[in-house]
Design goal:
Blueprint lengths: L2 E4 L1 E4 L2 E9 L16 H24 L7 H14 L2 H12 L5 H17 L4 H4 L1 H18 L28 E5 L4 H7 L4 E6 L7 H9 L3 E3 L4 H4 L5 E5 L4 E4 L3 H22 L15 E6 L5 H6 L5 E5 L14 H14 L5 E4 L28 H6 L1 H14 L5 E5 L5 H21 L6 E7 L2 H4 L3 H6 L2 E4 L1 H9 L17 H16 L4 E3 L10 H6 L4 E4 L1 H13 L2 H13 L3 H7 L2
Parallel strand pairs: 3-4, 4-5, 5-6, 9-10, 9-16, 10-11, 11-12, 12-13, 13-14, 14-15
Antiparallel strand pairs: 1-8, 2-6, 3-7, 7-8
Helix pairs in contact: 1-2, 1-3, 1-6, 2-6, 3-4, 4-6, 7-8, 12-14, 14-15, 22-23
The structure holds phosphoenolpyruvate (PEP) and magnesium ion.
Phosphoenolpyruvate binds next to β10 and α18.
């Protein structure tokens, strides 16, 4: 049956593929294709794991003390029964041999299918057996993790072609990932994966999960509410990342239409790629700086490819996430920063100090649910200042890396003059520590992110102490409008064109320029082509965005007359309904 689900468009383009449902808790399970010749070995691997778990449970059962409650023995029986269930083993075998999934992926896929069957059962006793199934699958996964695998996952799994034989049973079919929720760390793991599109039930347009999807430059829809409950494993799904729609099991006519749109999109990209070496200058000769936002040093390749003139935001926290709380030490961080510097081939790299917290927990398990209001809690610079050894380690690594190339150091979420003073004192201290150890370090330009309204409304100390400002509109919007950027329930209120947001933004740009300090925007607004003319009109000349957006924004810049846009932009922000005024201007 064909149906569609509406969500939020977060990463443009069209993806068509078969659904792979991933439970949020299982996102860290390895997903890769095995070679067909390895299928037998892989089936054997999972058989060995299952037999080991059976043996373990049997032993526990045998050694059960006489006084143990009879329910316990019965429970172990259920576990054994589930492990030996034909549906589980034949399903797993199917995913391995017919689809070439690795063992871990195969068993979690089959679990998802069986779990859904349990959910639909009338009998509450049977329905509750889902938890038992989950436990046995967990045990098998744990065993697989511990046992050496004869089948090695490829170092980086590249996406399968989008041209797979659609609706046929070809092995080379593209896959789209559907999940209830994915943390930014999970997304990072999928960054080099085989999926051609993503859809999640939860999340807002500028949630970090959406931001990583955008950086992967593959179509994605978030906030699609019940997508992971309605879509079934292996369903065909069209992800329309432009409109924010999922079409499940489309008819051949719809499929043909979207196939056409997909090709149009590819042609458009090809056309834009010709602008790569064109300098970003407006019609009236104003130079505009287009910088890249990156999450990992390896993203610099895409940045250089897109013609970025530097990195305007390296979200260093991605080096800290998904490591079971084991933070990277100074040397590991230094190496990562140097890789980014080398990747940019002499262009400047702006490294933002760690911004952990809110929707970017260190680990999925460590989601900050226990904090009442994580977005207002110990996040970003607050977290850094609360843990001086961690912060000093990062600062030393950045300062050392600065000896290897042009580095700007950017500090997130500052609001208080006190925080500014503490941060600068920490930087001085880190430098002194390096001097004491006789270690080389380099000069850095110091920048502050303006992403809390309090900062935008009291710029003086920022402009006095920092060399440049960078406006984080994602958070500036969240905190000005008091809506959680990651919560799809209030996503309709997330409005970059709210007059209050535009006023803060316009004043920050104007005040910085008046003081002769460079200012850029590195929030998602900078990469939104619908905003380019307005931002140019407000005087902005430095934009930082995902590499995938640079060429489209450059096209807007090349077509704009910045001088003429100034009066118009002032009118737009003074209007009661800037969105309407923007539209009216065409
Ligand atoms: C922002 O808030 O706009 C920003 C760029 O930082 P992040 O999205 O990482 O919070
Ligand atoms: Mg931010």
């Amino acid at each position: 049956m064909s149906f569609s689900i509406h969500g939020l468009a977060v990463s443009r383009g069209i993806a068509i593929g078969r659904a792979v449902l991933v439970a949020s808790s299982r996102a860290d399970v390895a997903h890769y294709f095995i070679d067909p010749t390895q299928a037998e070995q892989e089936v054997q691997r999972i058989r060995v794991a299952r037999d080991a778990v059976v043996a373990e449970i049997t032993r526990v059962q045998r050694e059960l003390p006489k006084e143990a409650p009879p329910e316990l023995a019965a429970l172990l029986d259920v576990h054994l029964m589930l492990l030996e269930d034909e549906q589980l083993s034949s399903g797993v075998k199917h995913w391995i041999t017919d689809r070439q999934y690795n063992a871990e992926w195969a068993i979690t896929t089959q679990y998802e299918i069986l779990a859904r069957q349990f959910d639909e059962m009338q009998d509450p006793y049977l329905r509750e057996r889902k938890a038992d199934l989950e436990q046995v699958v967990e045990r098998v996964l744990r065993f697989l993790k511990g046992a050496a695998s004869p089948v090695q996952p490829p170092a980086a799994v590249t996406g399968r072609t989008q041209q797979g034989e659609l609706l046929g049973d070809s092995l080379d079919v593209p896959l789209v990932l559907v999940a209830h929720d994915l943390s930014p760390a999970d997304m990072l793991q999928f960054k080099q994966s085989l999926f051609v599109g993503f859809a999640t039930d939860v999340g807002g347009r500028t949630s970090h999960t959406a931001i990583v999807a955008r950086s992967m430059d593959i179509p994605a829809v978030v906030g699609a509410r019940s997508a992971s409950a309605l879509i079934e494993q292996d369903d065909w799904v069209i992800i329309d990342g432009d409109a924010g729609v999922l079409i499940v099991n489309p008819s051949p006519i719809i499929l043909a239409e979207y196939g056409f749109k997909q090709r149009q999109g590819e042609l458009e990209r090809e056309r834009l790629s010709r602008l790569r070496h064109t300098p970003a200058v407006t019609l009236d000769g104003q130079k505009v700086e287009l910088l890249a936002n990156i999450e990992l040093p390896e993203d610099t390749a895409a940045a250089v490819n897109a013609g970025a003139v530097g990195v305007g935001l390296f979200r260093s926290e991605f080096l800290f996430m998904g490591r079971g709380g084991q933070l990277p030490d100074e040397e590991e961080q230094y190496q990562a920063y140097v890789r980014a510097i080398e990747g940019m081939q002499g262009l400047p790299v702006t490294i933002r100090t760690v911004d952990i917290g809110a929707d970017k927990p260190l680990d999925r398990g460590a989601r900050q649910d226990d904090h009442l209001n994580p977005a207002l809690g110990l996040r970003a610079i607050r977290w850094s200042l609360a843990d001086p050894p961690m912060f000093l380690t990062q600062l030393r690594a950045i300062l050392r890396a600065a000896a290897r190339g042009q580095v700007n150091l950017l500090v997130p979420m500052l609001a208080h003059a006190r925080e500014i003073r503490q941060t600068i004192a920490m930087i001085d201290h880190a430098r002194a520590q390096l001097d004491n150890k006789g270690m080389a370090h380099g000069p850095v330009k110091l920048g502050a992110m303006i992403e809390v309204p309090a900062a935008a409304l009291s710029l003086k100390p920022f402009l006095r102490h920092f060399d440049f400002l960078s406006v984080g509109t994602n958070d500036l919007i969240q905190y000005t409008l008091a809506i959680d950027r990651a919560d799809e329930a209030v996503a309709h209120l997330y409005d970059p064109l709210h007059p209050a947001v535009l006023r803060l933004l316009a004043d920050t740009i104007a005040e910085s320029h008046a003081r002769g300090k460079p200012v850029s925007v590195c929030g998602e607004m900078a990469g939104d082509v619908a905003m380019t003319r307005l931002l140019l009109g407000l005087g902005l000349r430095s934009f930082s965005m995902h590499p995938s957006q640079i060429l489209a924004v450059k096209q807007q810049v090349l077509r704009a007359d910045a001088g003429k846009l100034q009066a118009w932009a002032e009118q737009v922000i003074a209007s009661d309904d800037p969105a309407q005024a923007l539209l009216a201007a065409g």
